[in-house]
Structure formats: C-alpha cells, structure tokens
Write a structure and sequence with these properties.
Strand order of the largest sheet: 12-13-14-15-16-17-18-19-20-23-24-25-26-27-28-29
Shape: globular
Helix content: 10-25%
Structural class: alpha+beta
Largest sheet: 16 strands, antiparallel
Length: 735
C-alpha cells in the first residue's frame, strides 16, 4: 500500500512540474522562486517586513511545497467555451509571469525601507537564475552602517505644549541622543505627542503640525535631529498657541425615529460616558465612551459630536443613542447523532435586551430533544428524551460591593445569574440536574486580558429512577461492579468556586482556570457535625457533596510565515484531585482524550487512561476518563484555493488517574512510566472557511498506541486503516 502512495505522490509531482509552464508564452518566464537575503547579521531588520515590500511573488504553494493551484489551472484546455475549462481556471491560479519593471521597483522599495530603518547608505542588488522557462529572483540587501542620533532638539513655539511635554517622564520620550535613527521611530514619536495633546484638550491638533529636520554629520554615521511643532493655523490666521478646549456640557438624546426618547436610565448613560463637564477634551475618553456604549446590547449605535462656542474654548458634547428592539423570539431546530443514534432537537428562546432600562439582558430558553436508541436489549423503552429550561440575567456592569469606581470605569464587566433545570429520561435511568450560578466577567482596556469569577455555582444531580436491569448489570452485580460508574449514578451535590484568566494577542493565547468544590461544606460538616452515608461521606439534606480541586492550563503559539502558511503549537495540561468527601471526581469534571480537539487518531473518549484498553462498549465512556490530562499538538495550516484550507498535524497526549482504581488497570499516573504511555497520531485536515464559521474535516492515524505492547504499540510501522484511521467532523479550529 505504501508503494502505491509513493507512486501517486511521484506522478502528482511530475504532473505539477510538467504543466507549470503550459501557459507561459515564448520569451516570457514563470516566476518560480523569490528570496530576500541580507549580507551580514542585522538583528533589528525585520525580514517579514522586507519581504512584504516585494511587489511580485511566485505562485502559491500548498504547504510551501507544491503549486497545486497553478497545476489545476494548467489542466484546463485553451477553449474557454467548455465549462470544464472555466471551472478549472476559476479553481486554479494563472502563472505569474516575471516582470523586470516590478522587480526594479521592488529593489527601490527595499532600499527605501532600509533607509527608513536607519541604514541611509544601504543598497539592494538583484540576482536572477533562469532555467528553461522559469526564473528565480533573489534580492540581496546590503544595509551598511546604521545611523544614530547625535543631538536631539525640540523647536516648540507653544509654551503650554512645551510645558506639557517637559512634565512628561523622560522614559516615555521616543527620541534621545545615541538612539538609532529610523523613520519608524520618528513616526512613533510624532504619534505619541499627537495622542498626548489630543488627550489634554487640543481638540483641533493633528500630526501634520509636527515635522522633523535632520542633518547628517559629515564623515560619520551621525544625525543632528530637530522636532518642529508648527503654529496653529485656523481661519486663515497663524497663532503660536494651539487652542485648548474644555467640555462645557454633555447632552443625551434618543434617535429621531424614537421621538428623541431615551430608554436607558440616566445612571447607565452617565456610567458609560467618560466625557466629563469641566475636563479638558480627551480623545481617549471619547473612544472609551464609544467602546462602553458599543457593548450594551440594548444599544444599536451611538454617535458622539462636539460643538464649538464662538469666542471661547468650550465644547458642548452631544451623545445620540439609538436603541435595538428590546425583545426577540427565536426558534432553532437541529439534528442530533450520538454514537450513531439519530434524533432531533428544538429550542425556543426569548430575549429581552433592556429588562430594567439598564441594558440588562434577560433570556429564557426551552429545549426538547428525542433520540431512538439502538442496540439495547432487556429494557422496556428504547427512546431518549430530554427537556430543559434555562434562564439568564446579565448586567453590563459589576453588581458587587467594595469595588472602587476607578476600577469599574477602566474595565468592561458583566455580572450574570443563571438557572437551569434539565430532565433526561433514558431506558436505563432517569436523571435530573438543577443548577444555579452567579459569575463575573471582565476585561482590561485593551481587551487582550479577560477574567472570570464563578462566585457560586450550585449543581444538584439526582437520579429518581434506575432500571433493575442496569442496576443489576453494572451497579450491584459482584462480577461487574464499577466504583466509578456507581458513583456517577448516585445523587450528588456540587458547590464550586472558579477563577479563570485568558490572554490572546493573535500570536500567543493563554487560558488558565482553577476551581474548587466542597470546602465551605466541609467546614460546615466539621462545625455542625453533618450525618454520613454508608460510604462514610458527609451529607447535606441527605445528599453527599463533592469535594475536589481542579486546574487547567492551555498555551497556543501561532507562527505566521506569510498570508497563506502558518505553524501552530499547542500545549494543554489539566489535573484534578478528589479529597475529603470524595474519592472519585464527578463525571462532568473528569478528563477524556481523543476526539476532534485532542489526539485525533482516536475517537472521543477512546484513549486512555494510561495503558487501559476498553473492554465493555456500554460503559467505556465512564472508564476512559481520568484525573489528569496532557495534550501536545503541532499543526501546519495552509490556504489551498477558494475557501478551502488544509492542515498537516501531529498530536500527542493521554489521560491518567491519580488514584489506583480497580476498574481502570494501567490507568494510574507514575513518573517512571507516563512518558512511555504518551499516545501519538498524525493526519491531514481540510477546512471550509466561510469567514463567520469554519467546517473542519480531520483524518487522524494512530502512530503510537499505549494500549498495546509489541508490534501493536507502533501502528505507524504497520498501519491498518480499519483499525488506526479516525475521521472527525467539527465546527471551528481545534485550538
């Protein structure tokens, strides 16, 4: 089989190679490869930025290797009246024909970029290599010596602005003697000063009022630099002083289509407005006002305008607020497929975006689901029914004491209370879940850092009925009694506290969560001498409560090579430990491995723990869970053509238990053995990117299988599709 794959790969490569120049005319050349190199070592030169200045690049390559889009285009015939030729051309990419003029302009652009970086004596050479009808182009950067600032002078005729700049901490200054001279640094300093003035009342100031005068020092690589702040030009007159404005009034009004009526409380309007009467005009406060009003779901749009007063430096601020429709009702049907059991579900949701005239969002969702279960014998019913009601009330602010007003204003926060009742009727058992929660979410000014506190989260799980067949087969039979299974089919009370943090700047993403449950109840049990059940667990209202601590950490690094290619690394670690009133984690809190977002050579809950191998298909979903998880993923992502993207990936990981459970032999974590129990898989993924959502298809193959010893331990050597291939369909990226 592998020989056949090699033959197919060879034929594909030959096809691509032979057809690339099919539509390259005589005397023209196909631009095959473009490189940008630098002579010498210059750590401050961004090669990504330099490459972006090249005006002509070769055809795109799948995974930076094979030009499939060009090959697809070349498969088309010359007769464009035939539909197949039009389809192939629309799916493919025409050949990039070498243009010497664009190459020359690229060299000039690269030289200008080097000059902007402070290499004023830089030069750029171009080397070409022709072979048959293809050409490679290499740009050689010769930066030379960088230039530095010798003397820095500020020419400012406005005494107020001069005083403001002098009051600034010198560590914030962007231009100082001995700094490397660069246009980027000059632009950043000009922007810094413009932003500073725009936040201190200079309503009409813009960056065009700032220019530079640079004189090179003969016989050296030094520059004498002067920053010039020009006088104010208004109404045809020139004044050395720039006008500095204060806010005289702040006025709110509704949309004209709503008769100008405001449907938000005055306190809400003021709390989300950072423009204050008596303060100097501030562009940052204006942006904060837009940002805070923009996150209110009751508001459709906001328009903030300023009116100047003749013969005075005062501004009237007018804030127009247009509202969304307060109430909506939606209905959503869906199909379900649980382990091959087909069914249907539907939900009806009512939402009010302005319940108490403070942009509070109230929602109530009713959901029903039905599945026909196959393969169950000995049960009176073979259908699954689920009904649930969930309500939420979200406040767009902190509802909590002891929080300073300054903290409230510099963060965007929500407070949320929720209630859920879920009813599940299966042939084996009936299950009910009642959940009540109060949580806070907030982010900092740049929205990269996000925080969450689940102040209280109460969950009551009870089993009003368990069939005699299920009880005898799995819960009470001496030969098949399973402690983990039995624990998860008993009534249980969970009272948890959770903390969460996330950071994402596009290149790095970090998620960290920690939660604990049962500690307050454990203290109460000691103080008030709670009663115990037969297993020695303390009970609250005659129900045992769970006690555990759990922590999760995820790190993702995205390395973008160019617009079409990137490499993503992911590391995930989680650990949970039951203690006190629990020896086993609740099922919902246990870890599983395999599936579309984990080790993709295995199906969901198909891997681990440790070397454990599933034995009973009916209850393996319980046994193949653990208290600890490790995920390691590497994925190369490439744009193919149209809306189709591809991925090559390698995954590794597993789960383990921290205690030694009799029903999970080989599942306990041991430092001396765990590294040999890491499962590895590899595969190919296809993605349909529709911008607002992504459909993902992943084909994962097992490479190292910890559940087997000997030859079966390394299926990468002797792969079998029916045993080692797993297909996953999902929405969204895996990490």
């Amino acid at each position: 089989m592998r020989l056949r794959l090699y033959i197919y790969a060879f034929l594909l490569a030959m096809l691509c190679s032979c057809s690339e120049t099919k539509y390259v005319a005589k005397g023209d050349y196909l631009l095959d490869d473009v490189e940008v190199k630098v002579e010498g070592k210059y750590d401050d030169i961004s090669m990504d930025k330099m490459k972006s200045r090249v005006r002509q690049n070769g055809n795109s390559r799948w995974f930076s290797a094979i030009k499939i889009p060009l090959a697809t285009y070349s498969l088309s015939g010359r007769d464009t009246t035939k539909w197949i030729n039009r389809v192939l051309r629309s799916m493919g990419e025409p050949p990039v024909i070498y243009d010497s003029l664009r190459t020359a302009k690229s060299a000039l652009d690269l030289k200008a970029e080097l000059s902007n970086a402070g290499y004023l004596g830089a030069s750029v050479g171009v080397e070409t290599s022709k072979k048959q009808k293809k050409i490679d182009v290499t740009y050689i950067l010769r930066p030379g010596m960088p230039y530095f600032i010798k003397n820095m002078r500020y020419d400012i005729k406005d005494s107020v602005i001069e005083q403001l700049l002098c009051m600034e901490d010198s560590s914030n200054w962007g231009l100082l003697p001995n700094m490397q001279f660069s246009v980027d640094r000059l632009d950043r300093e000009r922007k810094r000063i413009t932003d500073l003035l725009a936040d201190n009342g200079f309503y009409e100031f813009n960056k065009d009022y700032i220019t530079y005068v640079a004189d090179s020092v003969p016989g050296s690589n030094l520059v004498d630099l002067a920053l010039v702040l020009h006088p104010f030009r208004g109404n045809g007159a020139v004044d050395s002083l720039h006008p500095r404005y204060k806010v005289r009034s702040v006025n709110f009004r509704g949309d004209a289509s709503e008769d100008g009526k405001l449907k938000l409380k005055e306190s809400v309007l003021k709390n989300n407005t950072f423009i204050k009467v008596g303060d100097y005009y501030s562009a940052s406060d204006l942006q904060k006002t837009y940002s805070h009003f923009g996150r209110l779901q009751a508001v459709r749009y906001t328009n903030v305008g300023f009116r100047e007063h003749a013969d005075s430096l005062l501004l009237d601020c007018d804030i127009q607020v247009s509202m969304n429709k307060p109430s909506t009702i939606s209905f959503q049907p869906e199909g379900t497929n649980t382990a091959g059991d087909l069914g249907a579900a539907a939900s009806l949701t009512y939402q009010n975006r302005n319940l108490l005239r403070g942009s509070e969002v109230f929602s109530i969702e009713l959901r029903g689901a039905y599945e026909a279960i196959r393969g169950l014998e000995g049960y009176a019913n073979e259908n699954f029914e689920e009904y649930s009601v969930e309500t939420r009330l979200m406040f767009p602010r902190f509802i909590a004491p002891f929080i300073s007003s300054s903290f409230r204003r510099r963060t965007t926060a929500t407070s949320e209370v929720s209630f859920l009742y879920d009813l599940q009727n299966r042939p084996e058992y009936h299950r009910r879940v009642v959940s009540v929660a109060w949580r806070y979410k907030w982010s900092d000014a740049n929205h990269n850092d996000k925080y969450q506190i689940d102040l209280i989260d109460l969950n009551y799980v009870f089993m009003p009925w368990i069939s005699d067949r299920f009880r005898q087969d799995y819960l009470e039979d001496e030969s098949s009694r399973n402690a983990i299974l039995r624990y998860n089919y008993e009534d249980l009370f969970i009272m948890r506290l959770g903390l969460g943090y996330s950071f994402n700047n596009g290149r790095y993403a970090i998620k960290a969560n920690v939660e604990t449950a049962g500690n307050v109840l454990g203290l109460g049990a000691l103080l008030f001498d709670f009663s115990k059940n037969d297993q020695g667990q303390y009970k609250l209202f005659n129900i045992a409560y769970a006690q555990y601590i759990k922590g999760d950490f995820d790190f993702t690094r995205n390395i973008r090579f160019d617009y079409n290619n990137s490499l993503v690394w992911h590391f995930g670690f989680g650990i949970a430990y039951p203690y006190g009133n629990s020896t086993i984690l609740p099922f919902e809190k246990r870890y599983f491995s395999g599936g579309a977002n984990s080790v993709r050579g295995w199906s969901v809950r198909g891997l681990g723990p440790g070397t454990y191998s599933g034995r009973d298909g009916n209850i393996d979903f319980i046994n193949q869970t653990g208290d600890m998880k490790i995920d390691l993923n590497m994925e190369y992502r490439a744009h193919l053509f149209w809306k189709l993207n591809g991925a090559l990936f390698v995954d590794a990981g597993n789960i383990w238990t921290l205690r030694n459970y009799e029903d999970q032999p080989g599942g306990q974590f041991k430092f001396s053995e765990f590294w040999r129990q890491i499962a590895v898989s590899y595969g190919l993924g296809l993605r349909l990117n529709f911008d607002y959502f992504i459909l993902r298809f992943d084909f994962g193959m097992k490479a190292v299988n910890p559940a087997y010893e000997g030859k079966g331990h390394y299926p990468i050597i002797r792969p079998r599709l029916n045993r080692d291939l797993t297909f996953h369909f999902a929405v969204g990226l895996p990490f």
